[in-house]
Amino acid sequence: MASPIVGALIDLLQLERIEENLFRGQSRDIGTRYVFGGQVLGQALSAAQRTVDPLRAVHSLHAYFLRAGDIEAPIVYEVDRARDGKSFSVRRIVAIQHGETIFNCAASFQVAEPGVEHQASMPEVPPPEDIPPREPLSAAELANLPIKLQRWLDRKGPFEFRHVTPRNELNPVKRPPFQQIWFRLIDRAPDDPTLHRALLAYASDFHLIGTATLPHGISYLQHNVQMASLDHALWFHRPFRIDEWLLYSCDSPSAQGARGLTRGMIFSRDGRLVASTAQEGMIRLLPDTKPADSA
Which domains does the chain have, with CATH numbers? Predict the structure, then answer.
């Protein structure tokens, strides 16, 4: 592993144990206004995994984002060992910052066992090599955005994303509520399945809720659009490597009441369904501005 960017992300998920079921994680400013939701997901899963028999792998995680996280402060994760049965273990995780709960979730773990199998088919899309990397915004375009957004958009992150159908976030057009994105970690990660799952939890928060904005021609870059994750569910189905290409196929069945619902399926390159996601997010349009053709 040669990339310092990847190394920094892996370090971010390696929590400090401060008591038997208590862990501390650092926060990282990646250009978002508050702590990136994927960071809290990944760290919470890392904390839970540290309290479970290594022979039991996480198969589901259900989380709620309760308060915005402060990027200038560490986060404490308290793990409740809710149950250890013959085949399943359940953990409840609470993330605390400045004495307040900012996030909670439940994660379930299972001993590997055989069973019936079926899966949805992977969409037919071009391979990642046939999709050029997204062109960076020009200096003039960046200059018109807040400093935080400039850093977010101009940074080289630990993941590479290739959109099957790109769109211009500065001038979004309306289109159906689905999208497919190839993604992978930009460098090789250690051969630790628990780390790969935590990294996938981190990455699964990218692009998901944005799918609900596609039919409305709006974007998180617009000053009159407010967006935030409310919850996040993640199911792990089959083994994978986060440093090999994965396809994130997302759709949004509904938006209403200033909330949008999105779903995702994550496939390995050979078509195996390795994980599924669901998320509801807040999507608010400020009252002084509406989409172009709104009544």
Answer: 4-112+134-285 (2.40.160.210)
